[in-house]
Write a structure and sequence with these properties.
The complex is a heterodimer.
Chain A lengths: L2 E3 L8 E4 L2 E11 L7 E8 L5 E7 L3 E3 L3 E11 L4 E4 L6 E4 L1 H4 L11 E7 L2 E6 L3 E9 L13 E5 L4 E4 L8 E5 L4 E5 L3
Antiparallel strand pairs in A: 1-6, 2-3, 3-4, 4-5, 7-8, 7-10, 8-9, 10-11, 12-13, 12-15, 13-14, 15-16
Chain B lengths: L9 H20 L3 E2 L5 E2 L12 E4 L6 E5 L4 H9 L5 E8 L11 E10 L3 H15 L9 E5 H9 L8 H10 L4 H6 L3 H13 L8 E5 L11 E2 L2 E5 L1 E6 L2 E8 L4 H17 L9 H9 L4 E7 H8 L17
Parallel strand pairs in B: 1-5, 7-8
Antiparallel strand pairs in B: 2-4, 3-4, 5-6, 6-13, 8-11, 9-10, 11-12, 12-13
Classes of the chains: A mainly beta, B alpha+beta.
Amino acid sequence: MATYSTNEFKAGLKIILDDAPCSIIDNEFIKPGKGQAFNRVKIRNLKTGRVIERTFKSGESVEGADVVDIEMQYLYNDGSYWHFMVPSSFEQYQVDAVILADSAKWLKEQDICILTLWNDAPLAVTPPKFVDLIITETDPGLRGDTSGGGGKPATLETGAVVRVPLFVQTGELIRVDTRTGEYISRVKE
Amino acid sequence: MIAWQPTASLAQLRLRAQMLATIRQFFAARGVLEVETPLLAHTTTTEPGLTFFATEFIFSHQPESLFLQTSPEFAMKRLLAAGSGSIYQICKAFRNSESGRFHNPEFTMLEWYRIGFDLTKLIEEVCELLQLLLATTDYVKTIEMVDYVSLFQQITALDPLNFCLTEYRKYARDHDLSEAIELCEEDQLQWLDFIFSHQIQPHLGQQHICIVRDYPAIFPSLARLKPTNPLLTERFEIFIQGLELGNGFFELTDAKQQRRRFEQDLQQRQQKQLPTVKIDEYLLAALTVGLPECSGIAIGLDRLLMVLSNCSHIDEILSFPLQRA
């Protein structure tokens, strides 16, 4: 894998830091007068999701990380693993619950997700930004209430629980923003 | 299509023109002479912390090495030694390997020297100029004056003069900066720079102008030692919103001391395998004849414009930053 000088650091670049794959968020060049120049870098650890700040000597080289994002179709869950497939090559990957983390609750079979691979092993799964899911259970709510105020919890077919307006009923298909977990709208099939 | 347009707005370019006009009026009213000195010269800085641009003059059989100036300081001092009286210059300066939110390798500098001024008098003049240039901002309402050592101690509880590596290491570990231990090793100067730039500088001049003075003598500079405390130098820096805007000195006039500094710098350059440069004998000859007692300061005008118009990237105030130049 290539190495990168701190001067090549820019948002999105993937590097290895403390043996973990990381993504650069921000890079600030610091030059104290006539002293040694530094780069103060904001970095996300792609394994833990934690964001840290780290200072490098300006011009220092760091090993790049072979991290790629690939679109894959979610196939099924066999009880311990979630299986994904690259549509063009039919190549399959399996992901465990630890890596899947919070994304699991948004996954519906056949949806296209983004798998982040590090040295060809899954590192993270990003669900589609918006998913359409059926409400399997919610309180009947009050008739005639069309406002968004208040709301009530609704359980979706994947097990996720989101707040929905009172007028939305069990069995309806709704659109949810997976980044915030917010209800967006009802979907007409 | 290729992005050929300036990165600065036209309003921003007008603001720069206005700033330059105000500066010229300010010095004209005070009888300070505007001068020009070469940007391209046979020598340049020896400072190990600065990287220069080198080129060649192709004219006779042997191409001659030439350098873009990292600062007009040496040439201006020669004018002072030649009897110019107080002088100022607005010019481009070039520093290689510097690029970022607050750095473009080519930038505009305002440098001036005041004959017979001590540091306090120069600080007063700097503040008067800043109050004119930044009149539309709130920063000018308050000027804070702090000395380096107290400031350092107050924020970090570390002593910058009596350097104790163990304490600095502990501080780094306690403040999530443990990379400093490897980065700075046992180098006091690096430690001071590291801690100052990470922990102190970002807080300076949040709503006002902050002047930090009396830097430890361990920092290499052409500043005089303080007569009352030879561990400190007659030097100050200006900060607004955590941004370093300028660096001023009560100037060193001793040719021998200057030569020693050059030689030490070149030694360090060799150790670090950095390109070397010839010592500026013109400057040393001028210092031997005698530099009048004076104080001088350099201010980065691009950064001052950033502060004036509340910009977060230097590209917003440059017509064409390097990547578009």
